[in-house]
Amino acid sequence: MEKQYDAVIVGYTCVDLVPGFRKNSPVTSTSVFFKPGKLIEIGGMDFVLGGVPPNTGLAMKKFGKKVFLNGLIGEDFIGEIAAQGLTRAGVSFNMIKTGGAGTAFSIVLAPPGVDRIFLESPGCNRVFGMEHIDFEAIQKSRLFHFGYPPLLREFYLNNGQQLQQMYGEVQKMGVVTSLDFSLPDPESESGTVNWPEVLERTLPHVDIFVPSLEELIQTMVPEAYAKIQSLPGDTEIVDKIPLDLVKQVGQRIIGLGVKILLVKMGHRGALLLSGDISSLNKKAGIALEQDKWNNREILCGAYKVDKSKGINATGAGDTAVAAFLTAVLNGECPETAVKYAVMAGRESLYCENIYKEIGRWEQLAHKIHVEQNELKCFL
Predict the structure, then answer these.
(1) Using CA atoms, how far apart are residues 42 and 21, in angstroms rounded to an integer?
(2) pTM beyond 0.85
(3) Cα 88–111–37 angle (5° rounding)?
(4) What is the mean pLDDT of residues 35-55?
(5) Which of 25, 29, 341, 342 could make an SS bond with 320 (beta carbons 3.0 to 4.6 A apart)?
(6) Fold for the domain defined by 5-33+41-377
């Protein structure tokens, strides 16, 4: 049965307020850059659609896929910016408006040379629940992608009851299910959630899981994450996490029923793990070569970054996911799919506005063909 949409992208929606830091002054340490009393001159402020539906959805549209975006916005000025932005992008969407809370927004501090810092106001995402999800649109789609549970209160309350219920309902539709995450703030309500238990109950209903390295370790093995975080030195935590631990946790996730796991590791590249993917090919519009995808372990190194062209890392993970999901929908082999993810993540670093500036699918393919990176296949 032919589907109306390639993917329905649902979840946390916001507007990013991005100060324009000077590109020619790379930062080596946020502690030195953001000093009390220091004046930092910026080149303006960009208002950019953010969150999973705009970031991943619009990138997938740029990559040639028919997408439908679903989320919740407020009846306020920022909500008008979000709706107008999606309308201008020419994408199908159902952004439900609520008067109960304002539209979510984030102030993204992303000076060149360091990872970004978010000042986040979740707004109406705190009341976004199953009643706001367009299941009719999902039924018409090949793939359902959702994010970010730690910022969506209704989906982590009661040990993630709505999260598990939602994925269970979508799985019954014969639609491929995909999940993205965000780091729980330890100082917020979501930081008190038993995330290992929530994921153990939810992941059996998830086909594709695409967390970042930090998200994977913090949510699945919080004790190990805390121990790694406390290690001395100025090294980024991404570099402190041992690859063996990532593989160990990854295999545990595959054991829970996830068919494909993509771990986004920033400048370390990406790790892909898979189990038996035969059940995916029983779903409408999916045709993966099982002998190439079954029980794989692939480490893909990052492509070289031209720091002189780097603008910021906002949305890099979501763009990488968009490319990976597009490759899966296209029936690419796992080696190629993970390369698309890593290349798209790299290319997004050069974009002030990802939706306008990211290359199309053919351009990504050409860059992959021309540029070299390290690819290790363990299984």
Answers:
(1) 5
(2) yes
(3) 120
(4) 86
(5) 341
(6) UDP-N-acetylmuramoyl-L-alanine:D-glutamate ligase (3.40.1190)
